Amino acid sequence: MDKTDRSIYFQRTSTVTVISPRTPVAAPALSRLYAARFVFALVWALIVLLSEGDIGFFLGALLVLYPVYDIAAVAADVRLSNPGTSRSGLYANLVVSAGAAVGIAIAAGSGIPAVLRVFGAWAIVAGVAQLVVGLRRRAMGGQLPMVISGGVSVLAGGSFIAMASKEDSSLSALGGYALLGGIFFLVSSILLRRRSHKA
Predict the structure, then answer these.
(1) What are the angstrom distances between the C-alpha of 97 and each of 52, 68, 122?
(2) How far apart (Å, rounded) are the C-alpha atoms in residues 144 and 150?
(3) CB under 8 Å to 122, separation ≥6 — which residues?
(4) In whole angstroms, what is the distance from residue 178 CA to residue 66 CA?
(5) With contact defined as beta carbons under 8 Å apart, do 171 and 48 qualify?
(6) Which of 14, 93, 133, 160 has its CA 20 to 30 A from that of 52?
(7) Is the pTM of this model over 0.90?
(8) 10 — pLDDT class (breaks 50, 70, 90)
(9) Total tally of structural domains belonging to the chain
(10) Half-sphere exposure of 61 (CA within 13 A, CB side)
(11) Domain range spanning residue 71?
């Protein structure tokens, strides 16, 4: 192999092995993570909608499980992300979700209004974080549903806090919120998968 061949060889191998710092995460892996988040949100929402009533141990544990799963999913997202990209939005989401899990566990003992307030505050902050992450990843495609979902989460959080002051407040809105968020994850998963197949 002469010098010219070696140069061509190393140029070709470098294009295969070097990950561009502009690529935040592998699309197929993120697509699978989003699909898993959709399945969880769907099951969680259905159980919550079927468990209307006073907050007992089961329902309280179920409410806490939502931010706990979010922590696990975001942690997986962090591991998938390219170290060369900003992950501040993901880290912020981890901290906020951890606080939400503790807050919901405490609020569950005080009743539905307290849970709605904590859940609402979490939805607002987590929605902003999700919106920021989606905007930063827009170059990889499939992130418009995540941006929209982040904005919807902020609005939903505000509505939960408003609902808490009503006498007939219930947790049904949380089920609808989780289901809608799951659908956004599913759409984004499909878009990312299609994009990766075309690449």
Answers:
(1) 24, 7, 7
(2) 10
(3) 67, 96, 97, 99, 100, 103, 104, 157
(4) 9
(5) yes
(6) 93
(7) no
(8) very low
(9) 1
(10) 3
(11) 38-198
Is residue 120 a part of any domain in this protein? Answer: yes
Pick left, alpha or beta for residue 141 (phi over 0 → left; psi -120 to 50 → alpha; otherwise beta): left
Query: Could you tell me how far CA 144 lies from the centroid of its own chain?
Result: 13
Token pair recorded at residue 100: 């939400």
Q: Establish if 123 belongs to a structural domain.
A: yes
State the Cα–Cα distance between residues 116 and 158, nearest whole angstrom: 10
Show the beta-strand stretches assigned E in 36-175: none
- Domain membership flag for residue 115: yes
Contacts of 47 (CB under 8 A, 6+ apart): 62
User: Residue 189 carries which side chain, given as an amino acid letter?
Assistant: S
Measured CA to CA, the distance from residue 193 to residue 76 in angstroms comes to 18
Spatial CB neighbours of 174, under 8 Å, sequence gap ≥ 6? 48, 63, 116, 119, 160
Asked if residue 17 is part of any domain, the answer here is no
Length of the chain as a residue count: 199
